[in-house]
Design brief:
CATH architecture: Orthogonal Bundle
Helix content: over 70%
Oligomer: single chain
CATH topology: Farnesyl Diphosphate Synthase
Order of helices and strands: HHHHHHHHHHHHHH
CATH class: Mainly Alpha
Distance between the termini: 58 Å
Largest sheet: none
Structural class: mainly alpha
């Protein structure tokens, strides 16, 4: 059947892996105090998580041609020409879908997609440069996506450009700065063989966990400061409670890795991603519901 080759290539888009990027979306919405379009919010979610992110994942797989585990896939299938066609289809659908929402959102999304291509494209391959690639990822998957989401849902320009909102956008990048190197700890051998000098390779195994802990701590502290500035103390309490499982899991993982470096493997990494993503998403969704219901702060 004609469809069969595409079904084999589809897992390389890693659509379920997009769940791990959901916290930035919910964080961006929870930061808005003024009403926004619920319909556009649904559209933005679909464009980002079901089209744009999978297209970027597939593009990355096309050039990496991983034989070992990658984010969301312990045993990735072989890359085939059908994957390239799916990537093009999802890219086009993402931009067209974004245009239906708003031209500004579509323009920002196009920039995001181009940058994600430069990350993997073999003639540029930002992934080879540990500092540059880290800056690109934490800025574009963090603050840029945070602000792009708000533009997409139709938030007022004044609210998006306010100092408090920009501070929260910076927090999203700080959290990415802490979590991003952790996604590389189990790929050291394959990255080294490909010539990709990732940040985790540069820092070493223990250095990666120390860096991640400092990045996540910095994000939490700045977030606390931002919520104090905005007089949103209940949100600070929600965040503290929701992220307690993340702190416990991360601490236990660090203890395991210190005793046995083999614990820095695919399964531990994916479990950390899953728990942190779900906990953060739940926290920001609760804050958003709090805002929508007009409950006192």
């Amino acid at each position: 059947m004609v469809i069969a080759p595409y079904k084999k290539a589809l897992p390389l888009l890693r659509i379920p892996f997009s769940v791990y990027l959901m916290p930035v979306y919910w964080f961006a919405l929870s930061a808005l105090r003024e009403p926004f379009s619920a319909g556009r919010a649904v559209g933005v979610f679909v464009v980002l998580h079901l089209l744009a992110y999978p297209a970027s994942n597939g593009y990355n797989s096309w050039f990496d041609r991983d034989e070992g585990s990658i984010g969301g896939l312990e045993r990735p299938p072989q890359v085939t020409p059908e994957l390239w066609r799916l990537v093009v289809l999802f890219d086009v659908a993402a931009v067209l879908g974004a245009l239906l929402i708003s031209p500004a959102f579509a323009a920002l999304l196009a920039v995001y997609l181009l940058v994600s291509k430069a990350y993997s494209y073999d003639r540029i391959r930002l992934k080879k440069y540990p500092i540059i690639s880290t800056v690109v990822v934490v800025v574009f998957q963090g603050a840029f996506t945070f602000l792009m989401t708000q533009v997409g849902v139709g938030a007022a320009a004044g609210e998006i450009q306010s100092a408090d909102n920009l501070l929260l956008a910076a927090v999203s990048s700080l959290f990415l700065c802490g979590s991003y190197p952790l996604t590389q700890v189990y790929q050291h051998r394959e990255d080294r063989q490909r010539g990709d000098q990732t940040l985790s390779l540069l820092l070493g195994l223990r250095g990666t966990f120390v860096f991640a802990g400092l990045g996540l701590l910095a994000g939490a502290l700045v977030l606390g400061y931002a919520y104090l500035r905005r007089a949103e103390l209940p949100f600070l309490a929600v965040f503290a409670v929701a992220t307690l499982p993340v702190v416990v899991l991360f601490t236990c993982w660090v203890w395991q890795v210190w005793r046995d470096p083999a614990a820095a493997d695919f399964r531990h990494t994916m479990r950390m991603n899953q728990v942190s993503s779900l906990c953060l998403s739940a926290a920001f969704m609760l804050m958003l519901l709090w805002q929508q219901r007009g409950l006192p702060l």
